[in-house]
Design goal:
By secondary structure, this protein is mostly helical. The protein folds into 4 domains: 2-68 and 227-302, Rossmann fold; 73-182, Glutamyl-tRNA Synthetase, domain 3 (Alpha-Beta Complex), CATH 3.90.800; 314-365, no CATH class; 374-464, Arc Repressor Mutant, subunit A, CATH 1.10.10. It is built from 20 helices and 12 strands. The chain has a 3-stranded parallel β-sheet. It has a 3-stranded antiparallel β-sheet with strand order 4-5-8. A two-stranded antiparallel ribbon has the order 6-7. It is elongated and about 105 Å long. It binds glutamic acid.
């Protein structure tokens, strides 16, 4: 089995594209097949090298590397043209000398409600080799058939009426073959057995099947994946969520988490949500891909990313962060010593949903809070608190080893003597240390921060009251 992911470099890798690539990759891995990547760069006006680089970078980040060298559609343009000549000789396609403007004008004459179609002006015109020197496009001659059907692995039998189509262009006047022709020829060259792609391509499939027929080639098996939808039920747009993989990378998502999330968009294995790569490979099959569009849910992605972050060891986190958010990581390593960083990471990872959030929180903990929230002070700092905090600082001075166990024992002891709950001391301490009432365990944080800095921050709160 040979499959391919065929991105057009007209933008960054869209998460819909990433999901298509993932499904192709899993299908190949599950079936001991071959996964290929072909850059479809024949739209010369819109294709950009910058996007080629960005797409390849995103694929690499997601660990979706092709099993054979990458190919570029434009590099096969001569073969494409040769095949078009062969079809021309067989009379299966024909030159169209109509000026594009005239074709457009004639289309305008069509009554409303009728699909815009080429009227066949040049279809049966004879022409000489000399005529072929004049500017022309090449059009595919639709055969005398009523319907075109194919079996889609996801949607079942799909049938199109041939009168929905027209004699479509396969070679533009500028000498560049069109998308539908190139895709077919390249898929034949690359011996693609299964074409797994987005549902937005389904209307191209009948044209492509006709081209396979004309070239005398066996078509591949098709599987059209349902679209990814926004929360309103329409096609996912920038208004719903970030749409390119690179944005997720920059926001501090882990490639493994995004991969896992995208796999579950439209595919299910019971109600399991978290999968190892091997499980995804073992369980993946196209018959478990639903027909309905899948709604993109940012909250779920954040939840899943949090799970993946919690599973990281510090060195794995440092590697992932260096790859995706290096500038931020540098700010972090500038404020914390390496041995402290590892300990802090263990504490902060418990609550994080993205690497950015995690790093930001760790950076901000490096500095004593500057402005304390008046509302929080009102809520957590009573007249009695000052005494508790003084007792605590005194206890710290007398303590030999400032481990979190010793610190919490001291806090408990003080609270018991004063007849208050632990929270009455723990929250003001947290506020003093972090400026917030949400943080990892405050006594664990104190242990990392060290006795002197912790005391300094507590005194700052007390002094400021
Ligand atoms: N180049 C097309 C795209 O980016 C994909 C074509 C295909 O998979 O057949 O949408």
């Amino acid at each position: 089995m040979r499959v391919r992911f065929a991105p057009s470099p007209t933008g960054h890798l869209h998460i819909g594209g990433a999901r298509t690539a993932i499904f192709n990759w899993l299908f190949a891995r599950h079936n001991n097949g071959v996964f290929l990547v072909r850059v479809e760069d024949t739209d010369v006006e819109r294709s950009k090298q910058e996007y080629v680089d960005s797409i390849l970078e995103s694929l690499k980040w997601l660990h979706l590397t092709p099993d054979e060298p990458l190919t570029f559609q434009l590099s096969r343009i001569e073969e494409h043209k040769q095949l078009i000549n062969q079809l021309l000789e067989k009379g299966l396609v024909y030159p169209c000398f109509c000026e594009p403007k005239d074709v457009e004008d004639r289309l305008k004459d069509f009554k409303k409600g009728i699909a815009e179609k080429y009227d066949g002006t040049c279809r049966d015109k004879s022409y000489t080799p000399k005529d072929l020197k004049k500017p022309h496009a090449i059009r595919f001659k639709l055969p005398e058939r009523e319907k075109i059907s194919f079996k889609d692995l996801i949607r079942g039998t799909v049938t199109f009426d041939i009168d929905q189509l027209d004699d479509f262009v396969i070679l533009r006047r500028d000498g560049v073959p069109t998308y539908n022709f190139c895709v077919v020829v390249d898929d034949i060259f690359m011996k693609i057995s299964h074409v797994i792609r987005g549902e937005d391509h389904i209307s191209n499939t009948p044209k492509q099947l006709l081209i396979y027929d004309a070239l005398g080639a066996e078509p591949p098996i098709f599987a059209h994946l349902p679209l990814i939808l926004g929360s309103s039920g329409g096609k996912l747009s920038k208004r719903d969520a970030a749409v390119s993989v690179v944005e997720y990378k920059n926001q501090g998502f882990l490639p493994e988490a995004l991969f896992n999330y995208l796999v579950r968009l439209g595919w299910a294995h019971g109600d399991q949500e978290v999968f190892s790569k091997q499980e995804m490979i073992d369980f993946f099959s196209l018959d478990k891909v639903g027909k309905k569009g899948a709604i993109f849910d940012t909250k779920k992605l954040l939840w899943l990313n949090g799970i993946y972050i919690r599973n990281l060891k510090f060195n794995e986190f440092a590697k992932a962060a260096a790859e995706a958010i290096n500038d931020k990581l540098k700010k972090l390593t500038a404020v914390w010593k390496e041995d402290m960083l590892g300990q802090l990471f263990e504490l902060y990872k418990e609550r994080a949903t993205t690497m950015c959030e995690l790093v930001d929180n760790m950076i901000s903990f490096a500095h004593a809070p500057e402005h304390l929230d008046v509302g929080l002070i009102k809520k957590w700092v009573s007249p009695q608190t000052k005494t508790l905090l003084f007792e605590f600082v005194k206890g710290m001075d007398e303590m030999e080893e400032h481990t979190h166990e010793n610190l919490i024992a001291l806090a408990r002891h003080i609270c018991e003597l004063s007849g208050v709950k632990l929270v009455a001391l723990a929250q003001p301490l947290r506020l003093a240390l972090t400026g917030s009432t949400h943080s990892p365990g405050v006594f664990e944080l104190m242990e990392v921060l060290g006795c002197e800095e912790s005391k300094k921050r507590v005194k700052q709160l007390v002094g400021g009251l």
